[in-house]
Amino acid sequence: MTRIVVVGNGMAGSRLAGELRARDPDARITVFGAEPWQPYNRVLLSNVLAGSSGPGQVRLLDAHWYGEQGVHAHLGAEVTQIDRGTQAVITRDGRREPYDVLVLATGSEAIVPPVAGVERALPFRTLGDCQKIVAAADGARRAAVVGGGLLGIEAARGLAGRGLPVTLLHLAGHLMERQLDAEAGLMLGETLRGLGVEIRTGVNVTAITGEGVLASGLSVEADLVVLACGVRPLTSLAAEAGLEVRRGVVVDDELRTDDPAIFAIGECAEHDGTVYGLVAPAWEQAAVAADVITGGKARYRGSRLVTRLKARSVELAAMGETQLGEEQAEVVRFSHRARGTYRKLVIRDGRLVGAILLGESDAVGTLTQLYDRGAQVPGDPAGLLFPGRPAGAVADSPVRMPDAAKVCHCNNVTKGQIRACWEAGARDLAAVSAATRATTGCGTCREAVEGIVGWLCEQEGVNA
After folding, report:
1. In this protein, which residues make up the domain named FAD/NAD(P)-binding (predicted)?
2. How many other C-beta atoms lie within 10 A of the C-beta of residue 98?
């Protein structure tokens, strides 16, 4: 019986445990999680901040899953050492667990900037962080969020949803500068202002005081300061064991480290020079690692990233090389600032290599499919911005959407898989979600899945 030990019980580690059990009913699987609770969906923590979801509503597994699957789970048990000589891991309390195969899924940690008074601020990364922020928000008058990337915007949106006036402070000249161009970042800021979030970009935080935040000569009043300054891979366990570590734990196409008995997946892993910080690549890696560990021949070739943000009055999708200009590629752009709508396509060699969609848009599914498949764009690419016009490519309508079209990017679920699931008897969203895992990641595909299920029911005269 193969002894598999997984260090990390977050979105990557817990998914791996499920993928392993699905492939090998006899393997001995042991999971160590440093956090004291069941794995949860980190993507949905802003809903907990906003009060629209409770901690129990973002859990990925129920409390009985481990026992039912025969997985040995140790929660609140931090692994502090890997003994590669005897092939065992050692926890902080001295427990020693032998392994035949070890998988590191340690994730990442919040970056805390070295500024005066930073101990007065609360990082936003884990469920525990989230609970501390919620408790502090109950007695706060004003909040400040440091960091204008995806996580900072989620935090600001969540706190504004609780009725708190929020100031968002960002070092770069516009929000989400890694994913958005300047115009899209500016318009996103205007949308957030409409939700009660004051935006200050191009400012450098120099101190956090009892009264608020000092930044580039400004004084921002706040009795709650939240840090969302990015994350760094947790690699110390691997480095201390002598494994190759650069920015992350270096892995090959099988997700193996330079020790053939040790794998790494998720935010702590570095594949082909890239560390991915989104859930979809982590889940793709979990599936590949599970295949390899159980004797398969799968290979990981990297992931095509689609960043999604969908909340009340904020809808955003960004993918690929969004920063390219007309001198480097064909760029098709539509902007309507009064409505908070911005759409940009970046095309090179006849293929979509990047896109930004800000504001409500029915073009997201079409463009995501084109980008993911590397398919040729139609002769009139402007038509892709407004799918009501004939585009001659893939389509959002279930009638025209090909079975190969990917509907849920987090879980790699296609329309064809949803159809097959429906034909096997899953006749509503909950049943399809349970069978395929669609909608269980970022949740932005929910409407698309509901539309496909509704269409299938309508075709057969079935009440959904």
Report:
1. 3-286
2. 14
Res. 22: pLDDT tops 50: yes
Place of tokens 């794998």: 263
Angle between helices 415-423 and 429-436 (to 10 degrees): 110
pLDDT score at 416: 82
Take residue 8 and report the two structure tokens written for it. 């990390």
Task: Please provide the CATH number assigned to the domain covering 118-229.
Answer: 3.50.50.60
CATH superfamily of domain region 3-108+232-293: FAD/NAD(P)-binding domain (3.50.50.60)
**Residue type at 216?**
S
Domain 305-390: CATH superfamily, name plus number: FAD/NAD-linked reductase, C-terminal dimerisation domain (3.30.390.30)
Q: Closest Cα partner for 144 from 85, 243, 79, 218?
A: 218
- Which residues are paired to 83 by β-bridges? 88
pTM (2 d.p.): 0.87
Structure tokens at 359: 């504001």
Q: Which residues pair with 342 in a beta bridge?
A: 335, 358
The DSSP bridge partners found for residue 231 are 110
- In the block, tokens 């050692």 appear at 90
Residues 407, 76: Cα–Cα separation, whole Å? 35
Q: Which two tokens stand for residue 189?
A: 């800021």
Residue-wise pLDDT for 406-436, tens only, equals 788 778 788 888 888 887 878 888 888 878 8
For the four alpha carbons of 289, 57, 149 and 385, in that order, the dihedral sign comes to: positive
Q: Is 228 exposed, middle or buried (0-12, 13-18, 19+ CB in 10 A)?
A: buried
Structure tokens at 454: 């509704």
Contact by Cβ (8 Å): 102, 235: no
